[in-house]
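pls design
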């Protein structure tokens, strides 16, 4: 899919880096100074927040410095074997990687593998991710044999855990790349095909994720001397890209939602429709299909509770502005499903409004200006604080109207 939305501001549902995994461990935090030294805990929390903010701002050098301070505090609180310390060490390794201090990234990643393996597990998905990260850094540091060995080990752990998801496809892609670098392109092809099959099922063959990975398979075909397959694949890539540029996507089949249970079964499909909706112009060929799916699902589902304010109701009331009202509903649903938070909240409302405003910016030339949305755009032109103040005011009014019985609720 073609991403066409300019950002008003960054709304992060997740801070995970695609090629590197942050894995929340099921291991319990050890009872230690954490329960008795609140100032130290507060300092750890503050340092973590600052380090993450600097990382997201791509100030990796400063993030490294703050993360090292964070680790020093965590060492005092929990020791080095605790999952909290290990997760912070994961972030430090990322900082080293982003600043191209590759030997230090490898050293930190190896330490993570050792700490987790010796104190938690060598058979769960977290251990597989840590091995995969280590292999990634080793490959970047030209330790190709070690990289291949660890990526293969990560794959073995993940397969034995019986997991079959997008994360498996990423591990498979890394295995394929490491095999290719060792001149074992035919083996690389087998692993890459397996990865692409997972990606096609998850994202669709017109998705950016799938299309961006296909050239690697083409390179493996060429290196293996399978030139006919490489040529056919290139023709396929060209065709899929042309179709994707026209707005064609691999959306799930429409469903007549008659119960909340049926909606719940299609939560993953609903997210696909939301992603399509927000990443395409209203003129896209499957936009009406997406609108119908989103409206039906949000009306019947118990997995999101949406309050529709006066302004959003007016958007839904006219054909010209209805798509933006649908965008508000989709934004609420996307937030609920991504965060597993069904109840209407300020965070949900802010996310939905900002996502809808982004979509408005992208589609304004098609629909013309909408007075209700323009006031938010003008507020943002003044400052981010002015925008959020207006969003907060609208949210408070919705809650006040709810108290008076003047609201529309979708469940």
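designed seq:
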């Amino acid at each position: 899919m073609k991403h066409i939305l300019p950002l008003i501001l960054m709304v992060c549902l997740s801070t995970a880096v695609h090629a590197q995994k942050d894995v929340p461990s099921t291991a319990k935090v050890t009872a230690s100074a954490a329960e008795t030294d609140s100032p130290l805990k507060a300092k750890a929390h503050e340092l973590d927040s600052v380090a993450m903010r600097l990382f997201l701002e791509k100030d990796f050098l400063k993030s490294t410095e703050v993360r090292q301070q964070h680790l020093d505090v965590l060492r005092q609180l929990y020791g080095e074997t605790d999952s909290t310390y290990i997760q912070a060490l994961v972030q430090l390794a990322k900082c080293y990687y982003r600043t191209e201090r590759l030997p230090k990234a490898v050293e930190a990643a190896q330490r993570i593998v050792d700490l987790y393996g010796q104190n938690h597990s060598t058979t769960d998905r977290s251990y597989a991710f840590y091995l995969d990260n280590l292999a990634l850094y080793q490959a970047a540091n030209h330790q190709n044999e070690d990289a291949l060995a660890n990526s293969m080990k990560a794959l073995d752990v993940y397969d034995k855990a019986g997991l079959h998801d997008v994360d498996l496809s990423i591990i498979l892609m890394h295995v394929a790349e490491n095999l290719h670098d060792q001149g074992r392109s035919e083996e690389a092809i087998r692993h890459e095909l397996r990865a692409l099959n997972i990606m096609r099922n998850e994202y669709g063959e017109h998705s950016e994720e799938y299309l961006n990975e296909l050239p690697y398979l083409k390179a493996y075909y060429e290196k293996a001397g399978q030139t006919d397959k490489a040529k056919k694949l290139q023709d396929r890539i060209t065709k899929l890209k042309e179709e994707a540029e026209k707005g064609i996507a691999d959306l799930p089949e429409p469903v007549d939602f008659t119960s909340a249970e049926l909606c719940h079964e299609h939560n993953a499909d609903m997210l696909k429709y939301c992603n399509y909706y927000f990443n395409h112009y209203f003129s896209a060929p499957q936009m009406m299909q997406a609108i119908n799916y989103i409206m039906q699902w949000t009306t019947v589902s118990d997995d999101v509770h949406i309050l529709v304010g006066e302004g959003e109701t007016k958007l839904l009331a006219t054909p010209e502005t209805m798509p933006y009202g649908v965008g508000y509903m989709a934004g609420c649903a996307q937030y609920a499903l991504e965060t597993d938070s069904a109840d209407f909240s300020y965070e949900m409302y802010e996310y939905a409004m900002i996502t809808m405003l982004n979509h408005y910016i992208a589609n304004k030339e098609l629909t013309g200006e909408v007075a209700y949305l323009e006031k938010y755009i003008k507020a943002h032109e003044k400052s981010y604080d002015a925008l959020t103040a207006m969003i907060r005011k609208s949210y408070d009014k919705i809650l006040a109207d709810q108290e008076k019985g003047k609201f529309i609720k979708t469940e």
